[in-house]
Amino acid sequence: MAIYLTKESKVLVQGMTGAEGMKHTRRMLAAGTEVVGGVNPRKAGRTVDFDDRAVPVFGTVREAVEVSGADTTVVFVPPAFCKAAVTEAADAGLALAVVITEGIPVHDAVAFHTYAKQRGTRVIGPNCPGLITPGQSNAGIIPADITKPGRIGLVSKSGTLTYQLMYELRDIGFSTCVGIGGDPVIGTTHIDCLQAFEGDPDTELVVLIGEIGGDAEERAAAYIREHISKPVIGYVAGFTAPEGKTMGHAGAIVSGSSGTARAKQEALEAAGVRVGATPTETARLVLDRLGV
User: In the UniProt entry, which residues are flagged as the active site (predicted)?
Assistant: First the structure.
């Protein structure tokens, strides 16, 4: 099994005909994703050839859903148009919207997250690498060839660290890897993924990757203490970051001791989560816990 994305998922790409959309649609198809269409009102009615696969372009998301049965969309449109793109996806009844675009104004993100939630559409991102269920489907920009199907679930704020842990633990493999993004306002949280992994019989252990700024990891720690029975191994990026600086993602703002890597580590460890000092040590903790 998996969470959020399976081989049955039918995926649209909003912005498929742009440079990034084209590149990553080709990679998603190569990974086995069932890409059923793109959306571009100016190019509706055309098809785009990806090697041996011709993908139709629709004028609206609603039309694409009616024709193809799509349930998921990956959004590659420019920041100024993301609010409209996600709103359109929610209005069309899609279950999942994966927003890759970075640089989206916070007030737009707040608006489309609220709108999507009211209509039952889960948003992952923005400013995220998406998610992958190895061997089944890939929605976003995560490399599909660095790991294999397995028994580890992964949820991460950082795209780069997602890839590193996937690679370091490639011999064990993953059920699903979710890059939730590091912006101040995101649609799917560590807690959402922890809850989903807890209910997935094929996920034996969860890797949680956080970073400095905000209190998402502290809230995840409280949730783990009360609700998660599966082992969780953690890593927090930013132990060497200077205080009082905005580092990396827009959400990585540290004030005093609040939001520091040390504070997050302490909260997670108090909840029974072993936290690695480096990504490599984190992978080693996973292997030790699985008895490998």
Answer: 249
Our measurement of the distance from residue 3's CA atom to the centroid of its chain's CA atoms, rounded to an integer in Å, reads 11
Ligand-binding annotation for 69, yes or no, is no
Determine the average pLDDT of the residues in 208-213: 92
Q: Please say if 249 is a catalytic residue.
A: yes
Query: Considering 24, 113, 190, 249, which one is annotated as catalytic?
Result: 249
Q: How much is the average pLDDT of 196-202?
A: 97
Give tens-digit pLDDT for 174-184.
999 999 998 98
| Residues in contact with 244: Cβ distance below 8 Å, sequence separation at least 6, in sequence order | 254, 255
Give tens-digit pLDDT for 243-282.
Answer: 655 555 545 555 555 578 889 999 999 999 999 999 999 9
Label the pairing between strands 53-58 and 47-50. Answer: antiparallel
Place of tokens 């969309």: 73
**The one-letter amino acid at 128:** C
Q: Is pLDDT larger for residue 70 or for residue 258?
A: 70
Say whether 133 counts as a known binding-site residue: no
Q: What is the bridge-based pairing of β-strands 10-14 and 34-39?
A: parallel
Residue 169, CA atoms < 13 Å, CB-side half-sphere: 36
Q: What is the 3-state secondary structure (H, E, C) of the chain?
A: CCCCCCCCCEEEEECCCCHHHHHHHHHHHHCCCEEEEEECHHHCCCEEEECCEEEEEECCHHHHHHHHCCCEEEECCCHHHHHHHHHHHHHCCCCEEEECCCCCCHHHHHHHHHHHHHCCCEEECCCCCEEEECCCEEEECCCCCCCCEEEEEEEECCHHHHHHHHHHCCCCCEEEEEECCCCCCCCCCHHHHHHHHHCCCCCCEEEEEEECCCCHHHHHHHHHHHHCCCCEEEEEECCCCCCCCECCCCCCECECCECCHHHHHHHHHHCCCEEECCHHHHHHHHHHHHCC
